[in-house]
Design a protein that fits this description.
CATH class: Alpha Beta
Radius of gyration: 25 Å
Distance between the termini: 43 Å
Helix content: 40-55%
Structural class: alpha/beta
CATH topology: Nucleotidyltransferase, domain 5
Number of helices: 9
Strand content: 15-25%
Length: 227
């Protein structure tokens, strides 16, 4: 099973080394490249003030966050949800820097998960173009009209959709899911079926194909269906 986590954070600022903290984490699970419907989300009490510049980005005030859990209270649930999945992050250095700083504060090791930085992927695919999350949503026709402010879970959901498009779109994800389902059903009574998922025929067999099939049937000796 290919498991990935689209992952985003909101913070009080730009640099954890300057004392800035996490205020929100959002995670969306993808299985075989498609959202599974499972997610993990938490607001966090940063135990400090909220600079106006950060508040203008995400709209999370000190008053709103004061009764929210500390990172230490949710870290176990976060790590359990993430597990060993590959992380999908838009500007990975930023989010991983903050998560690892918070993990260090509570005496936990830094994340060692493999990760995909969608900013880097988008820059390679669309060199010289805007590759913010909003710009990619516009490019791929993903509705982000409800994104009036940044939000970790909302952005993780949008990022999952962007990631699907960067990988070739939903049809590719559906093909992968179908292939995985077929592979799981291959073993029956000790017999392994051919591991090829074929598309449905686009047309009826031609007269030549029917004649060839008839000729093949005549060559069979003692077929089971005639018993």
């Amino acid at each position: 099973m290919t498991r990935e986590i689209a992952f985003d954070t909101e913070t009080t600022g730009l640099d954890p080394r300057a004392g800035h903290r996490l205020v929100e984490i959002g995670c969306v699970e993808l299985i075989h490249g498609m959202p599974s419907g499972k997610s993990w989300h938490s607001y966090l009490n940063p135990e400090r003030d909220m600079p106006e510049e950060a508040f203008n980005v995400h709209g999370l005030s000190v008053d709103f966050l004061q009764d929210k859990p500390l990172f230490a209270e949710v870290v176990e649930g976060f790590l359990t949800f993430v597990g060993d999945a590959t992380l999908v992050i838009h500007n990975a250095a930023f989010d991983l820097g903050f998560i690892n700083a918070e993990l260090d504060k509570v005496g936990r090791p830094a994340l060692t998960n493999a990760f995909v930085d969608t900013v880097s992927v988008a820059r390679r695919k669309f060199p010289g173009q805007r590759n913010s999350l909003d710009a990619l949503c516009d490019r791929f026709g993903i509705n982000n009209a409800h994104r009036t402010k940044h939000g970790a879970l909302l952005d993780a959901e949008l990022l999952a959709e962007v990631y699907i498009e960067l990988n070739g779109g939903r049809q590719r994800g559906l093909d992968l899911a179908a292939a995985a389902t077929a592979a799981a059903a291959q073993v029956s009574e000790g017999t392994v079926a051919a591991s090829v998922v074929r598309a449905a025929r686009a047309h009826a067999p031609s007269p030549a194909e029917l004649a060839a099939h008839e000729g093949f049937i005549k060559k069979l000796s003692d077929p089971l269906w005639l018993k």
